[in-house]
Design brief:
Blueprint lengths: L1 H32 L2 H7 L3 H56 L13
Helix pairs in contact: 1-3, 2-3
Length: 114
């Protein structure tokens, strides 16, 4: 009978780890979706440059975190890098949008009129 209770505890612990991984990936994905389309239209090479800078740092973080924390650690590192990438993208999108708002060479056309 005692083995049955230990088995349930292991199952609950696995479910908690699964939920933590899902939460970590969800948070990172949510942040990543906020500015993707705007920057892809305005600065298409921005994400290539950002990924080139962050990839070696992420690789080192994965190498050190995987043995220590396993899949949950990898999920949190992935989420953290997505959040960092999104914060940098948000700041860049804000700067680009603000710069676009101050353009003085725009002229209305017939297509813009109702």
């Amino acid at each position: 009978m005692a083995d049955l209770w230990e088995e349930d505890d292991d199952h609950e612990e696995d479910a908690m780890r699964f939920a933590l991984r899902r939460l970590a990936f969800f948070l990172g994905t949510l942040w990543a979706c906020l500015t993707l389309n705007f920057l892809l239209l305005k600065k298409p090479r921005f994400f290539l440059l950002l990924d080139t800078i962050l990839a070696p740092i992420a690789a080192l973080a994965y190498v050190y975190a995987t043995p220590a924390a396993g899949a949950v650690g990898v999920a949190w590192i992935t989420s953290a890098f997505r959040v960092v990438k999104s914060l940098v993208a948000q700041a860049t999108a804000f700067r680009v949008a603000r710069h676009e708002g101050h353009r003085t060479d725009w002229q209305p056309t017939d297509a813009a009129l109702p």
